[in-house]
Amino acid sequence: MAFHLGSLGFLTPFEFVDVETKIDSVLSGHANLTLRSRLKCVIRSKEAASHVLKSADAAGGATVAGSGDTVAMRNGFRNEDATHVVLNDVVIDRGPSPYLVHIDLFADGQLVTSVQGDGLIISTPTGSTAYAVAAGASIIHPGVPAIMITPICPHSLSFRPIVVPAGCDLRVMVSENARDSAWVSFDGRNRQQLSIGDSLRITTSVYPLPSICAADQMQDWFNGLAGCLHWNVRKPQKKLDPDL
After folding, report:
1. What's the per-residue H, E or C state across the chain?
2. Which tens digit of pLDDT belongs to each residue from 19-44?
3. In the beta sheet, which residues pair with residue 154?
4. Using CB atoms within 10 A of its CB, is residue 201 exposed (0-12), middle (13-18) or buried (19+)?
5. What is the pTM of this model?
């Protein structure tokens, strides 16, 4: 249950007025929920990925040599890798480097494209109204099961934001041909460097964030678009004067 105490308030539909009455109403069962999807992000260094893959190959793909432990693997990742969960977005950018970021994007194990530009935003529908919309992406209702991929200042006239199904298994890797490393941040936090060959696996988390609506899913969302982002705000067109 989110109360509006900041400046924008797109995700906080409740005003902090008569707060006790609103909480009592929710506790008595008068509430609608929006399940906001989140992204699970797993970082894997080039050295760690190479070691695990070689060990798995030597053990027939099931057991890491020398450990005796059977591990769940997919795209070279193990369960114990560094994990971050985000509500809005994960951003890979060039950081302080003067060079274009050069990263390879994979979807379900297949190379989709190589990104050359200032970076890439991978966002949830909730995050589509954050950094992604500022970078020219579409706005997605939080009830839509999807992941949005948005380039940041791509050095290409044809690289547009795209939407993929929520079940898509994404992997972003700093290209071996990159001139410098990249940087990654998770919901604007935990910023860290990705060296050449390092990769990041991004999937939809099995644990969405339940948020309580002030009215319902649709009304709250459109109220936020109009009231916070001023979506489609313009002066109305005047009716033609038949005497002119």
Report:
1. CCEECCCCCCCCCEECCCHHHHHHHHHCCCCEEEEECCEEEEEECHHHHHHHHHHHHHCCCCECCCCCCECCCECCECCCCCEEEECCEEEEECCCCCCCEEEEEEECCEEEEEEEECEEEEECCHHHHCHHHHCCCCCCCCCCCEEEEEEECCCCCCCCCEEEECCCCEEEEECCCCCCCEEEEECCEEEEEECCCCEEEEEECCCCEEEEECCCHHHHHHHHHHHCCCCCCCCCCCCCCCCC
2. 888 888 888 888 888 999 999 999 99
3. none
4. buried
5. 0.83
| Among the listed residues 211, 170, 216, the one whose alpha carbon sits nearest the alpha carbon of residue 75 | 170
Q: Which of 224, 234, 214 is nearest to 30 (CA)?
A: 214
Distance (Å, rounded) from C-alpha 159 to C-alpha 220? 32
3-state secondary structure 47-69: HHHHHHHHHHHHCCCCECCCCCC
